[in-house]
Amino acid sequence: MSTDIAPRGRGRPPKTDASYKDTRKMLIRSGLALLTQNGFLSTGIDAIVKNVDVPKGSFYHYFESKEDYRRTVLASYDSFFQHKLNKFLSDASVTPMKRLSHFVADAGRGMQRYAFIPGVVWWVI
């Protein structure tokens, strides 16, 4: 019995159970990882869509433009950090130094979990 997997053909990918929102979120996560690793200007749409197996032409179904996509990714990045900062630094039950210590420890655990690999966005995985 052969376990070879046939290569994906050209054309439209097969339909999956992923919804519009799921695919959009996957594209945002792909962009977060690549922008973190490669930088804003060095990240192209080709790499972003390849990470989530979405045809390049479909990218514009989810975002009006590359600039719209970048704004969305940066807003997601900002939203995450606002949540993290509020979670750790607004905890009035501990001293300010303990709050900071808890924040740094949490970040360290996340980075360690992914072997300190640049571009691995440990906080969205």
Could you walk me through the main structural features you see in this protein, from its secondary elements to its overall organization?
By secondary structure, the protein is mostly helical. The chain has one domain (20-113): Tetracycline Repressor, domain 2 (Orthogonal Bundle), CATH 1.10.357.10. Helices cover 61% and strands 0% of the residues. The two termini are 36 Å apart.
Name the poorly predicted regions. none
Percent of residues in helices comes to 55-70%
- End-to-end gap: 36 Å
Q: Helical stretch count?
A: 5
CATH secondary-structure class = Mainly Alpha
Write the layout of secondary structure elements.
Elements: H1 20-38, H2 45-52, H3 56-62, H4 66-89, H5 96-113
Helix pairs in contact: 1-2, 1-4, 4-5
Task: Throw out a few tags for this protein.
125 residues, mainly alpha, Tetracycline Repressor, domain 2, 5 helices, 61% helix
